[in-house]
Design brief:
With 499 residues, this protein is of the alpha+beta class. It folds into three domains: 154 residues, 2-Layer Sandwich (Alpha-Beta Plaits); 271 residues, BirA Bifunctional Protein, domain 2 (2-Layer Sandwich), CATH 3.30.930; 41 residues, no CATH class. It is 33% helix and 26% strand. The chain contains 14 helices and 24 strands. The protein has an eight-stranded mixed β-sheet. Strands 1, 2, 3, 4, 5, 6 and 7 form a seven-stranded antiparallel β-sheet that branches. It has a three-stranded antiparallel β-sheet with strand order 12-14-13. The radius of gyration is 30 Å and the shape is elongated.
């Protein structure tokens, strides 16, 4: 239910005929909306050029009434009396709605003067808002946001759904050191001043390229995937459409560009650095615009390639992968070794097609991922059906998806962490996402239906840390195919010595 008080300012003085015409419009709308609301009480007060309207109703919101009121007054009163509304200001808007569950902590919402959530009733109070807020459904969106936040908050601390669907054999593991620590000691990797970032030396890079070769042969060539190059910067239009703009901010790397590129515009910043030897970041912020983010999930920047396209289903499925550059995430929970870094070399696997095609590729990838990690790399591995990422973002942590859509995680045991019952690292996932992305980017088949898509993600950092954690750093303990390829790449290498 809601209560509103609005002030409508007319272009000229309101006479009795105009007042009667406005009341006739309100009465007509009251009858029209009565099927949704048995309660609709209103009062009017007229000043020289203003109509003050107060309403109480048990409708969900005032949107339908206010939009129709504005439209009909402008059309009818304008036509009959050659005047119209110059401005509508909603001086007070109080709305109450029932919740599915009571919030467990204080609810904070933007743009609202007062928020009250008592038991299972949510009450929002606004003052001095424009009609555009109503037309753009800000009130309904705020109510939805409130319900989403309550659901998310109430699920905090609950475990996400996880069901093991495959488990490999237990390996006889003799190595129990943290690979990141040991790789730094032998100069295969070196930390930078940035949080969660490394320089990767020749030996590490050679091992990464061995992994690339093996993945092409055992996964991508086998299933008919081809390489593409996706952008690593996302202008805001991309996360807005993909849905990441809803909650990306704590984990994003933001991108800013100069508001003006002239040296004179930046003279103060440069002069201050010359004197102090410091970059005045607050001043840099003032002179820059935030235009987007560095790639967080890596697949969203692909979608402008197909946006607004109609594709002949006979040319599908499209099966591609991209490992052309790094992905960036602000790990607010902290970084650790190579398994949790902020700049990582992501392997993005993406497929688009009809519903049937996408489901098949999703299942085919599950099979070859197991064959690769378990068979080729000889890792102790298990696979689980988990809460799909888009459901987890919505707070539906207990949801598992279905046989057509969902996510599989592939976890490798990390011996240096100890307990085999719980010390596992997700090194690969595989998802069928339904029509989420094709719907967001308007990608259809020739027959007119929305297509489907799926994706699978990992990083070379996680593959390598899992591999070295189980096999150790001595190549003689690696699977023969990995060892032979690595040693071939290392032939002629002169080791650097540091003092």
């Amino acid at each position: 239910m809601f209560e509103i008080e609005l002030k409508a300012k007319f272009a000229k003085k309101i006479n009795k005929e105009i007042e009667a015409g406005v009341k006739k419009i309100i009465d007509g709308l009251k009858v029209k909306l009565s099927k949704f609301s048995p309660k609709f009480i209103y009062k009017t007060k007229i000043t020289e050029q203003e109509l003050i309207l107060s309403i109480e109703s048990d409708m969900l919101t005032a949107t339908d009434f206010l939009v129709q009121f504005d439209k009909q007054v402008r059309e009818t009163i304008g036509r009959e009396f050659k005047t119209g509304i110059k401005e509508i200001i909603i001086e007070k808007y109080v709305i109450s709605t029932e919740l599915e569950e009571a919030p467990k902590k204080e609810l904070k919402l933007p743009l609202v003067k007062k928020v009250q959530a008592k038991n299972k009733t949510l009450t929002l109070e606004y003052d001095n808002i424009s009609l555009d807020w109503v037309k753009d459904h800000y009130i309904e969106k705020t109510i939805k946001l409130a319900k989403d936040k309550i659901r998310m908050a109430n699920y905090e601390g609950k475990d996400e759904f996880r069901e093991t669907v495959w488990e490999g054999k237990k390996r006889n593991i003799k190595y129990n050191l943290d690979p990141a620590v040991e790789l730094e000691k032998i100069n295969w990797i070196r930390r930078t001043p940035a949080k969660g970032q490394y320089v990767y030396g020749r030996e590490y890079t050679a091992l990464m390229n061995v992994m690339k070769e093996l993945m092409i042969e055992n996964i991508y060539a086998k299933l008919g995937f081809f390489e593409m190059t996706f952008p690593k910067f996302e202008p805001w239009a991309i996360p807005i459409k993909s849905g990441h703009a809803k909650n990306i901010y704590p984990n994003a790397y933001f991108v800013s560009v100069p508001k003006n590129s002239s040296p004179e515009y930046w003279e103060e910043v440069m002069d201050l650095f010359a004197i102090t030897g410091e970059v005045k970041t607050e001043l840099v912020k003032e002179k820059s615009d935030c235009v987007g983010i560095m790639s967080y999930a890596q697949c969203p920047p692909f979608w402008p390639y197909l946006e607004n396209k109609v594709i002949d289903e006979q040319t599908l499925p499209l099966k591609v992968y991209d490992w052309s550059g790094p992905t960036y995430r602000n790990e607010s929970g902290g970084t650790h070794g190579l398994d949790r870094v902020e700049e990582f070399n992501r392997v993005e696997t993406l497929f688009v097609g009809t519903k049937e095609q996408v489901i098949k590729v999703w299942q085919d990838l599950k099979k070859v991922f197991i064959e690769f990690y378990d068979g080729v790399l000889d890792l102790e591995l298990k696979a689980a059906r988990v809460t799909p990422w888009w459901m987890a973002h919505a707070g539906a942590k207990t949801e598992k998806g279905n046989e057509e859509m969902g996510t599989f995680d592939f976890d490798a045991y990390l011996p240096y962490r100890g307990n085999r019952d719980k010390e596992w690292l997700e090194i690969q996932n595989d998802s069928s996402n339904g029509d989420k992305y094709p719907n967001a980017f308007n990608v259809k088949g020739k027959s007119g239906q929305l297509l489907w898509s799926g994706c699978a993600g990992t990083s070379f950092q996680r593959i390598i840390v899992a591999f070295l954690a189980q096999k150790g750093l001595d190549p003689k303990n690696w699977p023969k195919d990995v060892r032979d390829r690595f040693e071939k790449r290392m032939k002629g290498l002169k080791e650097l010595k540091f003092y």
